[in-house]
Amino acid sequence: MDRNLALEIVKEQLTEHRYEHTLGVAQTSIELAERYDANVKKAELAAIFHDYAKFRPKEEMKQIIIEQQMPQDLLEHGTELWHAPVGAYLVENEVGITDQNVLQAIRFHTSGHEHMTILDKVVFLADYIEPGRKFPGVEEVRELARKDINKAIVLCLQNTMIFLLKKRVTIYPDTLNTYNTLLKQMKKGGS
Ligand code: DGI
Ligand code: FE
Ligand code: FE
User: Fold this and answer.
1) Are 33 and 43 within 8 A, CB to CB?
2) Where is the HD domain (predicted)?
3) Domain 3-135 is classified in which CATH homologous superfamily?
């Protein structure tokens, strides 16, 4: 799909602030895809649509999770997690994107996943470090992102989990599994 059409479609789903964030994620995804040899066009498309479902009513998202037989444990964790898998579903069924690589990058963009492709990693990291983000510690993640995408994602997950622990909310198993898997792979690889 042409980028201008994609942006036009997603703009209608988002607030001005979230649309600006989306533009930042798209630009950062292009840069990371070039650096780490992911498909640049797919990275841009997944980034444009990654938060497509962000403002859907919780009831609608809950129904989709149940009816589409998505992992039901999503319902026991924070509602913030829902827009990622529901977004992948809606982008396929409302927008007509069928590329499974793109849909998976959208699906995994909030929690990560044990088995992430380089495309998934690019979009996940871009969402965290795009220029509009002001999280404490984000600059350190931006620096790591220039050298080692796995190390950057581990730090990003570390920050997110500390944030969740401080808020005393549950950590979704995929979030923890992503962290554990990347750390184990990095140890094997000697870094
Ligand atoms: O949609 P964005 O704000 O751009 O970013 P995102 O899709 O990464 O969502 C971030 C939110 O998701 C933030 O409020 C923290 C929450 N989140 C991420 N991982 C987990 C989580 N919430 C819970 N309860 N458990 C998680 O593992
Ligand atoms: Fe999101
Ligand atoms: Fe986002």
Assistant:
1) yes
2) 18-132
3) Hypothetical protein af1432 (1.10.3210.10)
